[in-house]
Write a structure and sequence with these properties.
There is one protein chain. The protein is globular and about 70 Å long. The strands form 5 sheets. It has a 6-stranded mixed beta sheet, sandwiched between helices. A 6-stranded mixed beta sheet has the order 16-19-20-13-21-22, sandwiched between helices. A 4-stranded antiparallel beta sheet has the order 2-1-4-5, covered by helices on one side. The chain contains 17 helices and 22 strands. It has about 525 residues and is α/β, with parallel strands linked by helices. It is about 35% helix and about 25% strand. The structure holds adenosine-5'-triphosphate. Adenosine-5'-triphosphate (ATP) binds near residues 414 and 536. InterPro entries: AAA+_ATPase (IPR003593), ABC_carbohydrate_import_ATPase (IPR050107), ABC_transporter-like_ATP-bd (IPR003439), ABC_transporter-like_CS (IPR017871), P-loop_NTPase (IPR027417). It holds the Pfam family ABC_tran. This is Sugar ABC transporter ATP-binding protein.
Length: about 525
């Protein structure tokens, strides 16, 4: 049943003084009313946070605003005038830029070429490349990043650097409003600070920012006002970001009170060693990594993006070939660099770049869940569809995937719900050792607790879990034992209960301080997800 929600407070009724105001916006997809009368009003120079659970309509709203989707009803006013941008380029030219998570940049071009993508011919042509470089450098300086060389190939930049280039691109069109869709999702703590500095610089210049994030603590740090969407409706408009409590925001988003609950840790009784990693290393990536995971145990790898966490777990899983060391499961050495051997031994990996790693867009949701375990639903070589559907539907309900119909094509789900589908796949597969790389990235606050409960339940059933997460409280809350990874090495190992968030930060930042922003990121661009895969269109 649709919740009609709370009447939005009347903070800016006629959008007086607004740069952008939206009223009664409706967008209908087959079977889903993604926007059902949305109101939004953004003032010049403010950071306006847009919140909502997975599937609430945030992406659809920004796509309608930027001309990527046509609304079915409602009014958009831009700088006081009614508008209907026919394309994203038209919106950009009018000063409304949107920076999606899947950044619209080209790896093979230089930084400057990316900055002026779309208008390079009219402004610079090929003979005027030097002028283009100089103007790009000026924009990068304005964003506080003279360290990014305009002639550098874009593909060599880490995620944080690419975002800066996207913002420089927006500024090259004289953007008055920049919409940022979960910009912090791929950044570590230090890079988020850099992002916030840039955002403050922009707003000081009078540029407004619409900021989408599932990390509620960020709202208070960077936001001025907050609008909350629920089921395609505005349930609160223009709340003060600094004084609205997290509990209140969560209640508005979910319609209930959610507390982060990690569940009870299972006792250490009857645990036996499942995985032993000994002296594992890969030239240029990480070295001398040794640890064990026991049945029923959750071992967390904490560290910054680029620290080597993902490379370590991918090497354990056989997706990368180690240059030194061994991986042993149940006392038997795994063939190095063989995913097949790892899977046969009972390992499963839910990768960081979930969307690009294996969603079949046109296939129904349930098939995307069951695809890794089809053999289980087969009799004499034929899959029993009812059993397949029932098993998938259970996992989807557990993770609160919405819309709940498992027969919908997976491409029509929101980004966060697509992530839950890939997680569900690994949960139903029934591995003995599950490797989860950033399991809650892009997952909303309500579903996180469900996911934590599921992970704990798996551990209680005897599954060993190797967890990678940038969110330190998540690692400390979920894991039994924590390995802190910095610059390709395990710098500390301790029971989670003996560590605080400050301890872990101190350990990773100590390493980072000696290396600096640029060195810390250089050569690690392959680690940083840069996902251009399909999203709901
Ligand atoms: N192309 C499409 N066809 C059908 N339904 C769609 C399409 N795109 C989005 N939807 C539906 O519209 C609703 C809103 O989705 P939207 O992507 O806007 O959510 P969101 O708030 O951005 O979620 P998330 O936090 O997961 O990114 C969802 O129910 C989604 O399944």
């Amino acid at each position: 049943m649709r919740t009609r929600g709370f009447p939005p407070p009347d903070t800016d009724p006629a959008g007086a003084g607004a740069l952008l105001s939206v009223d009664g916006l409706v967008k209908q997809f087959p079977g889903v009313r993604a926007l059902d009368g949305v109101t939004l009003s953004v003032r010049p120079g403010e950071v306006h946070c847009l919140l909502g659970q997975n599937g609430a309509g945030k992406s659809t709203l920004i796509k309608v605003l930027s001309g990527a989707h046509t609304p079915d009803a409602g009014m958009i006013r831009w700088r006081g005038r009614p508008v209907a941008f026919p394309t994203p380029l038209a919106a950009l030219r009018a000063g409304l830029a949107t920076i999606y998570q899947e950044l619209d940049l080209v790896d093979g071009l230089t930084v400057a070429e990316n900055v002026f993508l779309g208008h390079e011919r009219s402004r610079f042509g090929f003979s005027l490349r030097t002028k283009g470089n100089a103007e790009a450098a000026a924009l990068l300086r304005r964003l506080g990043h003279p360290d990014i060389a305009p002639g550098r190939p874009l593909g060599t930049l880490p995620a944080a650097g690419r975002q800066i280039v996207s913002m420089a691109r927006a500024l090259s069109y004289d953007a008055r409003l920049i919409v940022m869709d979960e910009p912090s999702a791929v950044l570590d703590a230090g890079e988020v600070d850099t992002l916030f500095r840039v955002v403050r610089q922009l707003t000081a210049d009078g540029v407004a920012v619409v900021y989408i994030s599932h990390r509620l603590d960020e709202i208070r740090q960077i936001g001025d006002r907050v609008t909350v969407l629920k089921d395609g409706r505005t349930v609160a408009a223009g709340l003060p970001a600094r004084t609205t409590t997290t509990a209140e925001l969560v209640r508005l988003m979910t319609g209930r009170t959610v507390e982060y609950a990690f569940g009870e840790r299972a006792g250490p009784a009857r645990r036996r060693e499942l995985l032993r990693v000994n002296g594992l290393g890969r030239a240029g990536e990480f070295a001398d990594v040794s640890f064990t995971v026991h049945s029923g145990e959750i071992v967390g790898l904490a560290g910054l993006v680029g620290s080597g966490r993902t490379e370590i777990v991918e090497t354990v899983y056989g997706a990368r070939r180690p240059t030194t060391g061994t991986v042993t499961v149940d006392g038997r050495r795994l063939r190095p660099g063989s995913v097949r051997a790892a899977v046969r031994a009972g390992l499963g990996l839910c990768p960081e770049e979930r969307k690009s790693q294996g969603l079949f867009g046109e296939d129904p949701v349930y098939r995307n869940v069951s695809v890794a375990s089809l053999a289980r639903y087969a009799t004499a070589g034929f899959v029993a569809p009812a059993r397949e559907l029932a098993a998938a539907a259970r996992a989807l309900t557990d993770l609160d995937v919405r819309p709940g119909d498992p027969r919908r094509p997976v491409r029509t789900l929101s980004g966060g719900n697509q992530q839950k589908v890939v997680l569900a796949r690994w949960l139903v597969r029934g591995c003995r050792l599950l490797v989860l790389d950033e399991p809650t990235r892009g997952v909303d606050v309500g579903a996180r607790t469900e996911l934590y409960r599921l992970i704990r339940r798996l551990a209680a059933d005897g599954v060993g879990v190797l967890l990678v997460s940038s969110e330190i409280p998540e690692v400390l809350g979920l894991a039994d034992r924590v390995l802190v990874v910095a610059d390709g090495r395990v710098v500390h190992e301790a029971p989670a209960a003996d560590l605080t968030e400050a301890d872990v930060l101190d350990l990773v930042l100590a390493e980072r301080d000696t290396s600096g922003w640029q060195r810390a990121n250089q050569g690690h661009s392959a680690v940083v997800p840069h996902d251009r895969s399909e999203e709901p269109t």
